[in-house]
Amino acid sequence: MFSGRYQNIKSKLIKILFKKYNVPNPILILNFKAYKVTAGKKGLALANAAHILSINKGVKLYIAPQITDTSFFSLNTEADILAQHCDPIIEGRGTGKVGIQNLLEIGVKGCLLNHSEYPQSIEEIVFIAKKSSEMGLKTCLCVPEPDFLANFRDAKFDMIAIEPPELIAGQVSVSKAKPQLLLRFFSEIERAHPESLKLCGAGIKNSEDVKIAKTLGADGILVSSGFTLAKDPLLALNSLLDGFF
């Protein structure tokens, strides 16, 4: 009981300090992928609960629902929504495609680009990044390793997340398995994309994983199975968020 009160007081103090010294809130992206437990109304309930918890903790939350749920979530939750994917079109002719203007029309805040489970060509990514920047849609570029960033010297992204494919949905986080890779990745972002927030993904499961990522230089994390497949998703999320502080 005392521990719970202490954590609440600690979270409130941290939020006050963030506001006073204009420190950006830590970033958390929850990728709902295509799991049964995150679909439709069940997924929406998880999103709403996660949104409330993130506010109490002072963390900036983005939810990436299943593509078929994107509009449903956007209209029924106060959490900021990211599309899991975006195609290189604005609007108009493009049956089956996800266009930038269409996402903006339904209130989506941004999109994931080049997730390892939905890779995209360099040309597609550059086009979407340019048009999204012009139109006000945030972008989070997912990269498998630091050298991949060399393809985007003139492109701008709001967030860049490293996710080594072999560690995604695994039991060992990238922050524990490859700390030197993270250091090199964050250094490259600071050099070539200083305007981008640095995110860490792949295998993030608990507060210790988050703490290590933050210590190495991460501005936030990108998580899926560590939340969506947990026996108690909100308890798992609370642990993840505690790692920021």
Keyword list:
alpha/beta, TIM Barrel, about 240 residues, 8 strands, globular, eight-stranded parallel beta barrel, about 45% helix
Give a quick rundown of the structure.
With 245 residues, this protein is α/β, with parallel strands linked by helices.
Record the strand order, biggest sheet. Answer: 1-2-3-4-5-6-7-8
Radius of gyration, in angstroms, nearest whole number: 17 Å
Uncertain spans: none
**Beta-strand percentage?**
15-25%
How does this model look, in words?
- The chain is of the alpha/beta class.
- The protein has one domain: Aldolase class I (TIM Barrel), CATH 3.20.20.70.
- It contains ten helices and eight strands.
- It has an eight-stranded parallel barrel, surrounded by five helices.
- Helix 2 runs parallel beside helix 10 and helix 8 (207-216) packs parallel to helix 10.
- It is globular, with a radius of gyration of 17 Å.
- The two termini are 19 Å apart.
- The mean pLDDT is 88.
